[in-house]
Amino acid sequence: MDIETPDVHDAETVDQMFAVLQAAHLVDEPDNPPPCGVAYRVGMRQHPLTEKFERRIIRDDCRVVAVLSLFMPLVDNTAFCDAEVTVHPDYRRRGLGTALLREAEHIGRADGRRSLATGSIGRWEDGPQRSEAGRRFLEAAGYDLVLTEVLRSADIDAVQPAVERELLAQAQAASVDYETIAWTGRTPEEYLAPIAALNSTFLNEAPIGDLDLEPEKIDPDRKRRREELKIERGVFLCGVFARPKGSEEIVATTVIEIHTEPGDVAHQQITLVAPNHRGHRLGMRVKLENHEQLRAARPEVRSIHTGNASVNAAMIAINEQLGFVPVDAWYAYQTDISKTS
Ligand SMILES: CC(C)(COP(=O)(O)OP(=O)(O)OC[C@H]1O[C@@H](n2cnc3c(N)ncnc32)[C@H](O)[C@@H]1OP(=O)(O)O)[C@@H](O)C(=O)NCCC(=O)NCCS
């Protein structure tokens, strides 16, 4: 069993790597949106500058049967890395996953990283049955559970229009001193600096359990570059910002992404209200206004998927009012690789 560094410019190898992810998706999380082949193939060839990826594969004969992707931030969180190990369902329980996880630890340690995080889909409460393979595998490898995120989804029309109008009217009434800005595609230039400043606080504000992460320092260039890389990967973005009337400071944001495949599914990204501006229903307002914008801009979208730390009561309360129901959970694990022999 040889571990190989794939040639990311070899389309056949990349196709086979993606096929492993697709096969795993069907077995491990069929109710969640499948991975997007367009984003995967383009992402393989991108050079983000503020982060790097190491990839490894294992083949059986010529066919790729197991894939490692290791994410390593370069600007902040330079002691942290995040691994995804995926083994084709027909090749499990043969030690391939362990071999790739140990390889990730080795690469991370050699790069001076302290913490290696990874994770797995699993069952949430009385939701659909899920394979326990990922969690058992990581526990067997000595990793600690550091965060539980509940994944929820909602049909685009989960809430009756009259109820939604009422929720929006209440939210707008509670936040009359604020104005909102809706945008699609790229963040308009004039909002880049204030939104970068707000985004920089995210890892301080959202519950991240014991993940060994520090807040990112996001400047306008970094924000723009990140967005451009997503757009290159075929991602459609739409968002709503809020700011106090008469102020340039953005104090609330929400963003939704749609991948090329499947094009009828939306992925909720960051929603954040700055601490001094909470309690005015801004979270509800920006989300509802963004849903309205999403329906107009991409009428083919049928559902929205989101994930929140199980302890994030404020965000979960909003999502439940918007018709989101739990599907399953993402269990994040971490280990200290500086201590691994
Ligand atoms: C999790 C995953 C990577 C494991 O790959 P694998 O090659 O089957 O793992 P290994 O053969 O190295 O298993 C090592 C140990 O993990 C545990 N384990 C793995 N799968 C298990 C399962 N289905 N049930 C219980 N324990 C399991 C066992 O202790 C196993 O040792 P054993 O076979 O001697 O009992 C694979 O199931 C997978 O791709 N799942 C989807 C992606 C995922 O969840 N990845 C998690 C890490 S990023």
From TrEMBL:
N-acetyltransferase domain span: 1-166
Gene Ontology molecular function: any one: acyltransferase activity, transferring groups other than amino-acyl groups
Keywords: Transferase
Keyword Transferase included in the entry's annotation: yes
Pfam families on file: Acetyltransf_1
Alphabetized CDD domains for the sequence: NAT_SF
UniProt xrefs under Gene3D superfamilies: 3.40.630.30
Record carries keyword Plastid: no
Protein name: Acetyltransferase (GNAT) family protein
